[in-house]
Specification:
Elements (H helix, E strand, L loop, with lengths): L9 E2 L5 E2 L1 H13 L2 H8 L3 H14 L5 E4 L7 E4 L1 H20 L1 H10 L5 H34 L8
Antiparallel strand pairs: 1-2, 3-4
Helix pairs in contact: 1-2, 2-3
């Protein structure tokens, strides 16, 4: 599509929104089986992911994500059939838009100034820094979790 990327945000009649971030979260929950793992996969905090799940569930007539607590298999989350339908419809809207606006995308691409090699290198360095920061953040979270688990014993006396 000529290098142009687009994203669609649906502003729902009840005031809520569904866009690429919430769809990515639903897909990550489907794959990972938990909100925590999905948040980690997407590089966001658990709290942010949980709040987005709540927003999605409140927006729809039925929940898009259900959670389970405890048990032999531990806690988890699953995308409901309604959540699967939302993902499917969202991607359908994207596909229809991409196909029907192909000429317009090409026309806009023809109007866009080419990035200089220097700009491209700077942008690549910026993306690399972001990726390194995400990796470090993920590693720190894992180490922090391991440290918390290993120090669950009683507090040492002073």
């Amino acid at each position: 599509m000529t290098g142009i990327r687009f994203s669609i945000r649906l502003d729902l009649p009840n005031g809520n929104r569904i866009g690429p971030g919430k769809i990515a979260l639903l897909k990550a929950i489907r794959v990972e089986g938990s909100i925590t793992a999905a948040a980690r996969y997407l590089g966001m905090s658990y709290r942010r992911a949980w709040l987005l799940v709540q927003e999605i569930n409140i927006a729809l007539q039925q929940p898009a994500v259900t959670t389970t607590q405890g048990g032999a298999n531990g806690s988890g989350a699953a995308v409901t059939p309604l959540g699967e339908k939302v993902i499917e419809l969202y991607h359908s809207i994207e596909g229809i838009t991409r196909a029907s606006a192909h000429q317009e995308f090409r026309a806009i691409a023809a109007l866009v100034r080419e990035a200089t090699t220097q700009q491209q290198r700077a942008f690549a360095r910026h993306l690399k820094r972001i990726e390194i920061a995400r990796q470090l953040n993920s590693e720190l979270k894992r180490k922090s979790t391991r440290m918390r688990k290993s120090t669950k014993g009683p507090e040492p006396g002073i």
